[in-house]
Amino acid sequence: MDATMIAAGKTPSDEAHMQRVLYAFESAHIVLLADQPVGLLKVVRDAPVWDLVQIQVAPSAQGKGLGERLLRGLIAQAMASDVSVKLSVFKVNPALRLYTRLGFTVTDETEDAYEMVFMNPR
């Protein structure tokens, strides 16, 4: 995440990391793979739009499709619950390609980030 923040012109710090971890912490789920923690997923599930606050996969678990599986699972749950999913992503974040491929579309943007939504086709 530091590399993405730096590429977006942000200065990573321990304080900023802690703020991100604590934000919506009650919605956090630790992702386990073979009983080892390999990620973090935070989703605030308020209808009619769920907010994907944070998804992180440890470098050791990246490139294995875990992020995509997590997102596909979230999308399936959202569709079953008849809600949409929104997220915010730095424009320089490589995950942008994944979000677009899975059907998220840009609804707004700031100087350094896109707001995206997966609209439930209801």
UniProtKB/TrEMBL annotation:
Gene3D superfamilies, per database record: 3.40.630.30
Q: What is the lineage of its organism?
A: Bacteria, Pseudomonadati, Pseudomonadota, Betaproteobacteria, Burkholderiales
Which PROSITE patterns does this one have?
GNAT (PS51186)
For whether the record's keyword set contains Transferase, the answer is yes
InterPro entries noted in UniProt = Acyl_CoA_acyltransferase (IPR016181), GNAT_dom (IPR000182)
Q: Could you tell me which CDD domains the record lists for this protein?
A: NAT_SF
Q: Where is the N-acetyltransferase domain?
A: 1-122
Q: Does the keyword Acyltransferase apply?
A: no
Q: Which domain of life is it from?
A: Bacteria
Q: What is this protein called?
A: GNAT family N-acetyltransferase
